[in-house]
Amino acid sequence: MFFDHGYFMGGMHAMWWVFWLVVAVLVTLAVWSPQRQRRSPDEDASPLDILQRRLARGEITPEAYEQARALLERDARKT
Questions:
Q1: 2 and 8 in contact (C-beta within 8 Å)?
Q2: How far apart are the C-alpha atoms of 43 and 50, rounded to whole Å?
Q3: What value, to the nearest 5°, has the Cα angle with vertex 63 and ends 43 and 52?
Q4: Which residues pair with residue 3 across a beta bridge?
Q5: pLDDT in tens, 4-30
Q6: DSSP H or E segment with residue 3
Q7: What is the distance between the terminal CA atoms of the chain, rounded to a whole angstrom?
Q8: Which of 40, 48, 49, 73 is the most exposed place for a label (fewest CB within 10 A)?
Q9: How many CB atoms lie under 10 A from the CB of residue 51?
Q10: Using an 8 Å Cβ cutoff, are 51 and 68 in contact?
Q11: 47-77 pLDDT, tens per residue?
Q12: Does a structural domain hold residue 36?
């Protein structure tokens, strides 16, 4: 049971390997958690939807909204 100058094969040495394995798994789960992989609502939205949200949040004025909407609709008719 005792090898190499009296150290037990396994024992605390094996527990340290288990400890570091658990730490590595926890760090990996923290980095790649499902919450970090959630997509923002703007990723699937159309440009007009994004424009409407910006107007609703007050990021742009109604005049800027109308101008941008007209550009989007003009470009949509061309394609």
A1: yes
A2: 9
A3: 25
A4: 7
A5: 555 555 566 777 888 999 999 999 888
A6: strand 2-3
A7: 78
A8: 40
A9: 19
A10: yes
A11: 889 899 999 999 999 999 999 999 988 877 7
A12: no
What's the structural domain count of the chain? 2
Phi, psi dihedrals of residue 7, rounded to the nearest 5°: -85, 135
Phi, psi of 3, rounded to the nearest 5 degrees = -130, 160
In terms of Cα–Cα distance, which of 40, 39, 70, 65 is closest to 52? Answer: 65
- For residues 59 and 66, give the distance between their C-alpha atoms in angstroms, rounded to a whole number: 13
Domain that holds residue 10: 2-31
Are residues 51 and 24 both part of a single domain?
A: no
**Contact residues for 33 (Cβ-Cβ < 8 A; gap 6+):** none
